[in-house]
Specification:
Elements: H1 3-28, E1 33-35, H2 38-44, E2 53-55, H3 70-78, E3 81-84, H4 94-99, E4 104-107, H5 126-140, H6 147-162, E5 169-174, H7 178-184, E6 187-193, H8 202-213, E7 219-222, H9 228-235, E8 240-244, H10 258-275, E9 282-283
Parallel strand pairs: 1-2, 1-3, 3-4, 5-6, 5-7, 7-8
Antiparallel strand pairs: 8-9
Helix pairs in contact: 2-10, 6-10
């Protein structure tokens, strides 16, 4: 083998090694995104590839009283971008935000406007989540894609479903829906509790019973984990419909259009109860 051939082989080997190193570095440079709760993962899936997206809490877990395990802390450490609900929704993370300032913490509550209700469930606000998605795309160095357009189309469907029902009074079990109610101009008359871990007080129950007795309440929305039979017992013989709504969207898959589908499905289910088209939710006393 002559010198020229040897030189060419060395150059070829160096190029091959260089390309291999570059490929490994490119793989290592893929930013890892951690969404702390399922609704935020639904949003993140619009712009984050599945292999780069992790979720901290299981889908059915509400973040109000979550306690981090060592494995959860490991997930936080491994993430480059952490999409979280903010200190009001997830106070257990505030210490980690201070501890690891080099990480990109995207606090969805920071996108709320001054005139929005002060309520921890900012993931139920379409403007907040649209702005969050744009911020996440920017952090990833990628395009936000057609998310805004998809959300606009979902918004039109939501308006068509809920606008005719704005005067219908309803109750919620847990005070989770303030942003959703405000943005859709709905008539939420009250809630059983602010925190799902706390039982309703006697004064609250008396007020809600009065609303039911005077015929102001069309529907009561309860959540997974809340006994429908308990709510039925409370309504007595009054013709109030009951329907389960999930503010976490636990049964919705992590697909690119997951968040718009979540909001549309929330509206569809609420409308079915408020309009009376869901006859299975009608309660006029007794069981069933």
């Amino acid at each position: 083998m002559n010198r020229v051939t040897m030189k060419k082989l060395r150059i070829l080997l160096l190029i091959t090694l260089s390309l291999s190193v570059s490929a490994v570095q490119a793989s290592d440079d893929k930013l890892q995104v951690l969404a702390t709760i399922h609704p935020l993962a639904l949003l993140a899936a619009s712009v984050v590839p599945a292999e780069q997206l992790q979720v901290l809490l299981p889908p059915t877990i509400d973040p109000h009283h979550f306690a981090l395990k060592p494995s959860d802390i490991d997930q936080l450490q491994e993430a480059d971008i952490i999409l979280w609900g903010g200190p009001l929704a997830e106070p257990y993370l505030t210490g980690f935000v201070r501890r690891w300032p080099e990480k990109n913490w995207i606090d969805i509550s920071s996108f709320a406007s001054a005139d929005q209700p002060v309520n921890a469930h900012y993931w139920l606000s379409v403007p907040v989540m649209t702005a969050t998605q744009e911020s996440l795309a920017e952090a990833l160095g990628s395009s936000a894609g057609d998310f805004a357009d998809t959300m606009d189309k979902a918004r039109q469907q939501i308006d068509a479903l809920l606008t005719p029902l704005r005067e219908r009074g309803f109750l919620v079990y847990h005070r989770a829906y303030d942003h959703w109610v405000s943005e859709n101009h709905l008539n939420q008359l009250g809630s059983f509790t602010i925190n799902p871990e706390q039982k309703p007080g006697l004064k609250t129950l008396s007020t809600l019973r009065g609303l039911i007795q005077e015929g102001s309440v069309t529907c009561i929305f309860y959540e997974p984990g809340v006994s429908a039979e308990m709510i039925r017992g409370f309504t007595g013989d009054h013709p109030v419909r009951l329907l389960e709504l999930d503010p976490m969207g636990a049964d919705i898959s992590l697909i690119p259009d997951g968040y718009p589908y979540f909001m549309t499905e929330l509206a569809r289910r609420a409308a079915s109860c408020l309009s009376g088209t869901d006859t299975t939710s009608l309660h006029t006393g007794g069981k069933g």
